Amino acid sequence: MLHGENLTLNYKDGEGVVEALHEISFRADDHQFIGILGPSGCGKSSLLYMLSGLRKPTKGEVYLDDRPYSRMSENERVGLRRTEFGFVFQQHFLINYLTALENVMVSAPVQDKAHAEQAKALLADLGLGTKLHRFPYELSGGERQRVAIARAMIHRPRIIFADEPTGLLDRRTGLQVMAILRSYREQGSLIAVTHNPEILAEADLIMKLRDGQIVSVEDRVTRRSGEAVL
Ligand SMILES: Nc1ncnc2c1ncn2[C@@H]1O[C@H](COP(=O)(O)OP(=O)(O)O)[C@@H](O)[C@H]1O
Ligand SMILES: [Mg+2]
Fold this sequence. Notes:
Elements: E1 2-13, E2 16-28, E3 33-37, H1 44-51, E4 59-64, E5 67-68, H2 74-83, E6 85-89, H3 100-105, H4 113-125, H5 141-153, E7 159-163, H6 171-182, E8 189-194, E9 205-210, E10 213-219
Parallel strand pairs: 3-8, 3-9, 6-7, 7-8
Antiparallel strand pairs: 1-2, 1-4, 4-5, 9-10
The structure holds adenosine-5'-diphosphate (ADP) and magnesium ion.
Adenosine-5'-diphosphate (ADP) binds next to strand 1, strand 2 and helix 1.
């Protein structure tokens, strides 16, 4: 459903041009958990930015359901990010003067009672049912990340992009957060990037990235249909 072809991304900085990614091809189907693994600086975040339409590739094209991003207007791409995609980052980026519930509602498509009930139910599912009205600074790191996950899920996106989602959490909390993210596969897809292989233990497919290039793709699924993923 989401695929990228020959994605190359150059950054211009003071000294010249940095090639952050070189001719990457990528494909994610519905209900897949795709892990992108690699050391710091290898281009993981850059790849997510291109796949979610936040950055235009220098070369190559990204398609959602065969619709190329380059033929969409900026408004359409913004719309995609609001409706079809959800984002979880290493830092939660919650709004400090809003409660947990209000932070989730920021992403709700409509500010009505039905969505407020959904947001409460989602937070309760994530173990935060008694902390709906707490501010981010009244929550632990793992709790804040769970609020950020609820915010990424409230509009039922087709794809959740997670950029080092457990990077600031202790190991146990990180594994809990991954279990929650992983469960989203029933509704949509999860694309998670990390330098930590442990959190990708249950990924369907792991792409290893090094210096802006894919060095291996490991298909770890015996898919019901038995088809190859890539
Ligand atoms: N805005 C930018 N301007 C210039 N270089 C950048 C910019 N963002 C990232 N880079 C460079 O691109 C490469 C990949 O960065 P990034 O995608 O952030 O990697 P990762 O997420 O794997 O740590 C690095 O060499 C980084 O320094
Ligand atoms: Mg990064």
